[in-house]
Structure formats: structure tokens, C-alpha cells
Amino acid sequence: MNTYKNIVVLTGAGISAESGVDTFRDADGLWSRYDVNDVATPEGFQRNPTLVHEFYNLRRQAHKTIKPNAAHFALAKLEQNFQGAFVLITQNVDALHKQAGSKNLIHMHGELHKGFCIFCHAKVECFENMSTETSCTSCKRTAGMRPDVVWFGEMPYHMDKIFDKLSECDLFISIGTSGTVYPAAAFVADAKHAGAHTLELNLEPSHGISLFAEAIHGKATEVVPAYIEKLLSAQQ
Ligand code: OAD
């Protein structure tokens, strides 16, 4: 194992699967039960905001009983104990990385527990249900609150910062993502371009597998803690 100075980790739905969070594209995933155009696009929200609120309300309610797993905790441990630079970019909107103790965390697709007002753009915390009747705590108007989740056709958050981090990293680890949604699916190519070692940790080979220098396939709760233990021992 090499020693590294600058690590970027990207996570996707697979890291939260063993906590009981649905993935998107697995056989029983969310996109087998919902039409992505209905619940994850600005046009879908315009057509039927009630359906979209219901979709995210269900996920917010389900979140009340789930807990971070060994893979989330291992990443928090890596951040705490690694001597060099570390950043965790997640495509997930759940709060499990935060709950596990990760601090240097970028939610590129937004957060389930936040909403924003389409009229005044105020952002608010949201732990309960949201509806077309919810009024904005800032401008007081109703019918303008939406989940603070990046939908298809919208620009993910913090892209400048993310590209800066990718251009500086010497180890890029992708965990639990199918590698189908851009721009995240291209981060491995950006990291490779920067000269980083690239590693995939996923249940099965992702769509982007050919871009990675190394891959370890298995359950996140097994492969992530095992790899991180080795990584931390090599740095001492
Ligand atoms: P996907 O559902 O596309 O992929 C999940 C990946 O996790 C798959 O490759 C699975 O094989 C893997 N997986 C499942 N269980 C696992 C486990 N226990 N351990 C390790 N890996 C496991 O989810 P994402 O790649 O995160 O965006 O999807 C990316 C984006 O597409 C999401 O952020 C969301 C979605 O549409 C938006 O909603 C904008």
C-alpha cells in the first residue's frame, strides 16, 4: 500500500444500502418503483408537486429509524486519523455520513433534511413532512417550498470546490455508486488526470469500472472498513 497525502472519496447509495436506505438502480431500487421524470425533475415538480412531496416525505420518515453503518463510521475514522488532506463528496441526500461523524463533507446532490423556497431562495431545515401548504419562514409565501435536492437537469452543488479537490488528490476512492450519473461518474477520470490512484469499492463492477486502476467488490460494511484499516496502518 502506498502512502498518500490527499484523499478524495465519492459515495453513492450503495454505502447506505445496509443501513436500510433504498438504492436507485438495483433490481428493487427506487427507480423500479417510481418514474424518475415524475419525482426527480423540476418539470415533474411543476406538474405534480404533491406527488414529489410525498416521495421525499416518505424518505424523510424512513430516515428516522435508520442508522449509519460500519462503512460510514470507517470513513469518519479515516478523516479523524489521516494526516493529510481529506474530503468526502456524497451523492446521497441522507444524513448518515454526518451522523457517523464526517465533517469535511460535500452534499453535491443536496440534503433530504433541507428545503428551499422557489420564490425567495431561503433555505430551511426540514425534518418533518413538506407540502404545497408549507409556507416559507422567510418570505411567508405558500406553495413555493421544495426539497433541497438536486434534480435531473439541475446543476449539482459545490462543483468548483469539487473540481479543485479532484485536481489535487493522489487517491480517489469511489464507494457504492453505479457510475451512471454525471458529473459524479466522471470524477474518476478527473482524478486520474491529476495523477491519482483510483479505487472502486462496490458490490459489483460499476459502469465506470474500466476507468479505475483497482477495484475491490463486496458489501460496503465489509470492504470499506477493511480497506481503511490497511490504509491507516500504511500511513503510520
Ligand atoms: P445507484 O442505485 O445507481 O447505484 C448503487 C450502487 O451501489 C450499485 O452499483 C450497487 O451495486 C451498489 N451497492 C448496492 N448495495 C451495496 C452494498 N451493500 N455495498 C456496496 N455497494 C452496494 O446509486 P447512485 O450511484 O448513488 O441522483 O446513484 C447516483 C444518483 O442517481 C443519485 O444521487 C440520485 C440517482 O438518481 C439524483 O436523484 C439527482
Could you give a quick summary of the protein structure above?
This protein has 236 residues and is α/β, with parallel strands linked by helices. Helix content is 35%, strand content 19%. The protein contains ten helices and nine strands.
Task: Produce the secondary structure layout.
Layout: E1 6-11, H1 14-17, H2 30-33, H3 36-39, H4 42-47, H5 49-63, H6 70-81, E2 85-90, H7 96-100, E3 105-107, E4 110-117, E5 123-125, E6 145-149, H8 159-168, E7 171-175, H9 187-193, E8 197-202, E9 214-217, H10 220-235
Parallel strand pairs: 1-2, 1-7, 2-3, 7-8, 8-9
Antiparallel strand pairs: 4-5, 4-6
Helix pairs in contact: 6-10, 8-9
The chain binds 2'-O-acetyl adenosine-5-diphosphoribose (OAD).
The site of 2'-O-acetyl adenosine-5-diphosphoribose has 27 residues, from α1.
- Beta percentage is 15-25%
Helix segment tally = 10
Describe the sheet with the most strands. Answer: 6 strands, parallel
What is the spatial order of strands in the main beta sheet?
3-2-1-7-8-9
Bound molecules: 2'-O-acetyl adenosine-5-diphosphoribose
Structural class estimated from helices and strands? alpha/beta
**Tell me, what's the shape?**
elongated
Distance between the termini: 12 Å
User: Average pLDDT across residues?
Assistant: 96
* Rounded radius of gyration (Å): 18 Å
How much helical structure, as a percent, in the residues? 25-40%
